[in-house]
Amino acid sequence: MSYQVLARKWRPQTFAEIVGQGAAAETLKNAITQNRIAHAYLFAGVRGVGKTTTARILAKALNCRQGPTVDPCNDCPSCREVTSGQSIDVLEIDAASNRGIDEIRELRESVRYRAARDRYKVFIIDEVHMLTTEAFNALLKTLEEPPPHVVFILATTELHKVPGTILSRCQHFNFRAISYREILERLELIAGEEKIRVGERALSAIARASEGSLRDGESLLDQAISLCGQEVKEEQVRDLLGVVPQQLLEEVADAVIARDSGRILALVDQVLTSGRNPQQLVRELMGHFRNLLMVKIAGKDSHLVAAPAEDLTRLQAAGAQLSEEDLTRFFQILVATDGELRGSAHPRLHLEIGLIRMVQAKRLAALEELLAAFSGDSLPGSPQPRTAAAPQRSDASRPPAVFQDSGPPAPTAATSLLDRIREAVSDESLRVASLLGNALDATVAGDELRVRFAAAQRGSCGMLQDREDREMIAKASDKLEGRRLRVSLLVEEQQAPLEDAPPPEPPPPEETPPAAEAPRPPEVGSERRESKRILEDKRVQSFLEVFPVQGKPEVQRLK
After folding, report:
1. What Å distances lie between residue 413 and 419, 424, 440, 480, CA to CA?
2. d(CA 19, CA 539)
3. Which homologous superfamily is 6-175 in?
4. Domain 246-361: which topology?
5. How far are the Cα atoms of 23, 293, 294, 317 from residue 302, in angstroms, in the given order?
6. Who's near 407: CB < 8 A, 6+ residues apart?
7. 18-74 tens-digit pLDDT
8. How buried is residue 169: exposed, middle or buried, by Cβ count under 10 Å (0-12/13-18/19+)?
């Protein structure tokens, strides 16, 4: 007997052997058991996920000598003929080459005749989306009300091209892409039964390259066996597939973490010198950084991580050095670089620039932290509102300057504690430290740390109500006080006016302040001191470090 490729030799023959399509298989089994067999089914999904295989198994289950049964015997003449594709009552039609209205007319004529031997006459129409509009229209009536002995099974990889009038006449099953773990387990089973020695890394590279198609994975394994013989090695598999070694991907990630642009350029040169495709490197890096993100979020034992077991510890160690924001930012840069490489006349240039952008992205601060640090309600030098209502000054006597020189606050224990907490928290989160800068003070009462905010800073207090932020403040206070404190964030309300006090009379519209009492501009010396104090503020200095200006920074008044 001539050689049979692994994809055909290991094709599932029963519902129990179908890989990755448990919902569809279970539904079809229940329909057979309950005698609720529909007259038309539509299987949709990407290539190599089991659409035609499931259609053949369903045809065998309906026409088996022991059936209809959910477990076809694969031994009777009907089952053997369906398996070999020679059954006269199970007709497989390729819609790509039989797409016209004439072929559909012939199908309509044959539908009228009963099966030659079996119970049902089954029509499996593969790639049904290739039919012409006229052919679809000719099929409508037959598909809606076929004879009771006819079952249609349509299969397509492009569901959006199938008319809605066809979809409404069929039971629709979505065949999902098969997961990395399922493909890996199936390949391990096949290699073991075929007595092939192959490592997990080699199988992992094949499973990732198959991109959710089990048939592609089996074909690649067959090709690797042809290259390597009875012992398949990882290096040969990677050369065959053109994929980048895992060690090189880890070196690129380490260089990005270390912000080593020179090392990045050397690794790019190494990849391109070996003859590998730049776009392949970008896609392999996308998979690697996705694994880092999945390990960081779901843990190294999660099924979401598409990597062999021996790589999980290293992935966890690398992921611990990056935040989720860093990883998502890297992934966005890689996606953009992949798009730029398509049809590019200078692929090496785009690849190098994209990877250097990843190195530079590591040093960027989050926009949310900058906005929180330099929001309008926390400008340096702005006076904090007081608890008691202060006597109101007339508009004529109020100076027009935006920043009032109230002088540095008197050092107190509460202020000192708040500053020390801010300093301890700033190592972990600049955003939390900046929001704490808007507080009035921090005091310890028993086992409670009370952080007070003015009513105007209610938004800053609300932004710190997150459990992680409160836990961060609690840890900082633990280190400073030497004991566990419960954190309370309080907003100090403005004193409400008395109910019996009459509302203030509005000033007459004709009254205007005399010209002699018009506000005078502040003195030059006071303005210089105020500008110097603002520029020496730590938040302003950190802002200027992120957003440098040309020349000497200046403070200008708002008009």
Report:
1. 10, 16, 13, 13
2. 58
3. P-loop containing nucleotide triphosphate hydrolases (3.40.50.300)
4. Zinc Finger, Delta Prime; domain 3 (1.20.272)
5. 22, 12, 8, 16
6. none
7. 998 989 999 999 999 999 999 999 999 999 999 999 999 999 999 999 878 999 999
8. buried
Tokens 């938004």 -> residue: 459
144 near 117, Cβ under 8 Å? no
Residue environment code for 406-419, b if the CB has 16+ CB neighbours within 10 A, otherwise e: eeeeeeeebeebbe
Which residue in this structure is represented by tokens 């100076």?
Answer: 399
CA atoms of 255 and 261, how far apart (whole Å) = 7
The model's pLDDT over 212-247, given as tens digits with 9 standing for 90+, comes to 899 999 999 999 999 888 888 888 888 888 888 888
- 113 exposed, middle or buried (CB, 10 Å; 0-12, 13-18, 19+)? exposed
Kindly report each contact of residues 402-409 with a partner whose C-beta sits within 8 Å and lies 24 or more positions away, as own/partner: 402/557, 402/558, 403/379, 403/530, 403/534, 405/381, 405/526, 405/529, 405/530, 405/533
CA–CA distance, 521 with 399 (Å, rounded to integer): 7
Assign domain 377-387+405-496+523-541 one CATH number from 3.60.21.10, 3.90.180.10, 3.40.710.10, 3.30.300.180.
Answer: 3.30.300.180
By residue count, the chain amounts to 559
Q: What is the CATH number of domain 180-241?
A: 1.10.8.60
Residue ranges of domains in the chain: 6-175, 180-241, 246-361, 377-387+405-496+523-541
